[in-house]
Amino acid sequence: MTEPVRIQGLCKAFDNLDDPAKPVLAVNQVNLDINEGELVTLLGPSGCGKTTLLRMVAGFEEPTEGDIFFGDRRMNNVPPNRRDATMVFQSYAIFPHLSIFENVAFGLRLKSQSRKKIEKHVTEVLAMTGLSGMANRSPTQLSGGQQQRVALARAIVMEPRVLLFDEPLSNLDAKLRDQMRIEIRELQQRLGITSLYVTHDQVEAMSISDRIVVMRGGVVEQVGTPREIYSQPANRFVAEFIGRANFITAKVGEANTVDLAGARIALDAPIAASPGDSVTLLVRPEVVTLSPTEGIINGTVRRVMFLGNLTEYLIEVPGTDPWLVELSGPEAPTFTAGDTVRLSLPPSSIHVLAE
């Protein structure tokens, strides 16, 4: 059985050694509802408060203010071992002197379950995590990806109501990270466990999450689905942290238009500014198309980088900062540095950022 998680007005202050009168507020008034069976990711740079928030949910840190609920149960004063929550750590935290079977069975033995039940349950979980046939091996005989599977198996064998992940893939190489995040997501969906996941890797967050919580300085900047966070960021910080972006200054015109690099573009979404005001537009590199002759904005190619699945162009556009453009696909045109080009972009792809 799994449960929703509710976080209300959560704060965590630490002592400030430089100025005891001004404690450091690591988490500041966080409110978050995690639905039953949902995987929510806390995403942000180092020091944004995401790990502190996770540790408060786990019970390893005591909140300064606010409440944490699993279902209808207030968890603030419940010790970690009684929260029905398990954590997969960045460091794996596997016992090197125990076999894989005994590592996974460790928590069940502490709960005094019968030998028959432990053997059945551990065997099922080892199969579920791709570790069948490795039960008697030592952790030192396993690869990094296999060790991470052991850590995951040890967490889910306890049948937790809430599953917590503290940057579990950061010690793996790029290919293993890609593989493991797929496995974690598929397993979480199959089991339907309410999960809270911490990472600083935007690709990881985008690929596994039902929703993403972007944090900065202990504060939640935006909560939304990966698509919402990417296409409709709440502010420039979120836009810069999720994906690559062009930030273009434009003037607001009449009838919901903007004057951009010599072109007047009618936007689909209403503009919360008056004619004549300056606004910052978010334009993602992949929405812009290039042509030798057809387009609405003039530009000059300044840099070309072939990246295999796409080609990246830096385009100098009069009156604005250079534009980053990404073209992909077999029919995409190719250009060289110094070429004159025309740029086009659909109005639906232009997002006006809130100041």
TrEMBL record:
* KW Cell membrane (keyword) present: yes
The chain's coiled-coil residues are none
Gene Ontology terms for molecular function: ABC-type transporter activity; ATP binding; ATP hydrolysis activity
Give the SMART domains listed for this entry.
AAA
SUPFAM superfamilies attached here? MOP-like, P-loop containing nucleoside triphosphate hydrolases
Q: Name one GO cellular component term.
A: ATP-binding cassette (ABC) transporter complex, substrate-binding subunit-containing
Q: Record's superkingdom?
A: Bacteria
Gene3D superfamilies in UniProt: 2.40.50.100, Nucleic acid-binding proteins, P-loop containing nucleotide triphosphate hydrolases
> Entry's InterPro entries?
AAA+_ATPase (IPR003593), ABC_transporter-like_ATP-bd (IPR003439), ABC_transporter-like_CS (IPR017871), ABC_transpr_MalK/UgpC-like (IPR047641), Mo/tungstate-bd_C_term_dom (IPR008995), NA-bd_OB-fold (IPR012340), P-loop_NTPase (IPR027417), Transp-assoc_OB_typ2 (IPR013611)
Quote any Pfam family the record assigns.
Answer: TOBE_2
Q: Which UniProt keywords apply?
A: ATP-binding, Cell membrane, Membrane, Nucleotide-binding, Translocase, Transport
Domain ABC transporter as annotated: residue spans: 5-242
Q: Does the keyword GTP-binding apply?
A: no
Give the UniProt family note: Belongs to the ABC transporter superfamily.
Protein name per the record: Polyamine ABC transporter ATP-binding protein
Organism of derivation: Pararhodobacter oceanensis
